[in-house]
Amino acid sequence: MLALARAKMCAFARLVGPGGHVTGLDFSQRMVEVARRRTPDFSLPLRFMQGDLHELSFADNTFDRCYAEKTFQHLSNPRRALAELIRVMKPGGLLVIAEADHETQVLDSPYPDVTRRFLRFRNAGMKQPDIAHRLYALCKDLGVTDIHIEPLTCVTTDYKNIEARAHFVEGMELACQHAVVTPEEAELWITAFNEAVRSERFFHAVTWFLTRIRKPL
Ligand SMILES: C[S@@+](CC[C@H](N)C(=O)[O-])C[C@H]1O[C@@H](n2cnc3c(N)ncnc32)[C@H](O)[C@@H]1O
Question: Does the pTM exceed 0.70?
Fold first, then answer.
């Protein structure tokens, strides 16, 4: 199995049957080292390597399973990466790609128009904010017909759970610096945001799409 999902590597390695093994891959050598350090059980059939999803060094038809999580949104050419994953999978093999669709985000605020501009600004700073819902057509383009899409909406009501990744206040300040919102709008929005967090009325949701495909035989 080939996997791009740091937190799930050990679980995958415990699941593969006798003789199976898991290869963890990331473009960043630093991330590869971190993943290695965080793997306490050296007896697991697991190895980590640096690599580029756009140009995998594996032969055609190598893996039974591939799994990629939170990776396609960072790619410059998702179509090429998808073609590469399909290429290195055996015929009949399964590929699962799990991505949040950032265009499905909702964030409750008394200033919905400001929120919409803010979220659009943030998405524009990402390489592929909408890749989760574009994968279906990309798979079809690449000749795959066995495609199953599973939606999963993640609702957060305790901001602490996503604060380290979300940085909504800093993001709104940046949107203001880029004239996406006025200073007055930013101030009102941040005040309302902080009040929502303080009074336990914070609400954020985003839908993930898990795209599962089977390589044609
Ligand atoms: C948000 S992190 C997710 C890491 C991991 N997939 C996980 O679920 O924990 C995004 C990762 O994508 C990696 N990445 C970006 N471009 C890549 C590429 N072309 N090939 C492989 N990995 C890439 C980055 O190095 C980064 O570690």
Answer: yes
